[in-house]
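Hi,

Apologies if this is the wrong queue. I'm a grad student, and the batch job for Vacuolar protein sorting-associated protein 26C from Ataeniobius toweri produced an output file that my downstream script rejects. I'm not sure whether the problem is my script or the file. Here is the sequence I used:
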Amino acid sequence: MWWITETVAGVITLSCKEAMQHHGISLSMEGIVNLQLSSKSVGVFEAFYNSVKPIQLISNNIEVAKAGKIPGGKTEIPFEFPLNTKGNKVLYETYHGVFVNIQYTLRCDLKRSLLAKDLSRNCEFMVHCQPQKAKVVPTPVKFSITPESLQNTREKSLLPRFLIRGHLDATSCVISQPLTGEVVVEKSEVPVKSIELQLVRVETCGCAEGYARDATEIQNIQIAEGDVCHGLPIPIYMVFPRLFTCPTLETTNFKVEFEINIVIVLHDDHLITENFPLKLCRV
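Support response: The file is valid. Your script probably expects a header line. Output copied below for reference.
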């Protein structure tokens, strides 16, 4: 199910071999942002413990059927839920992360007599944010990697000589379209072992007193293996996985951002990484 008309509609299907008495059928809808601190941040700021409490975005409950009897066989009960937020809360897009999790669920409860156990089923539904009207104009980003351009390296003189060029077609990306570009190994003293694309989520939780910022890998795609031909353009192509990415999000208590790493592994196990922050949006 998707948030398009700002209602969630569907059918509750009940299957039973023979007629069954019940004490009412109810349906509840809940949208929650769960925040979690990484182990390195626990105990650093006391204020964190208040800021990482679950944020309830939406909570509704309706009675689908009053107490009565369900006939044997298959029974379908249609329902429709308005997506009304609590107060001035905003609905964020469904997102499954490590330290930030935005989830929307439906729960159906069928109450039975004291001697019979109540029946309950949960179902997650997906929420898309409203697409922005402004068009995203792709701006290519060129890069050139040499031993001198590397940031976190002390002994640059000991590194093998190499020159790697390329470009990304855009770093402001439409989430429903792939990330594209190309990379070219112009020269390298040491043979190339592998070239990989690493998509990273950067999740920030906290408050005014301080923030915990954690970067974790979403997916890693190998785009070349072995000592590739020098001067040959290698295409960059990565699809953003639906549940594990969302439009770049910044709120008072948390942020969800994304980065892409181009990783070149040489045969002597030197690791060369070029990092690019990404801004994801939906149009």
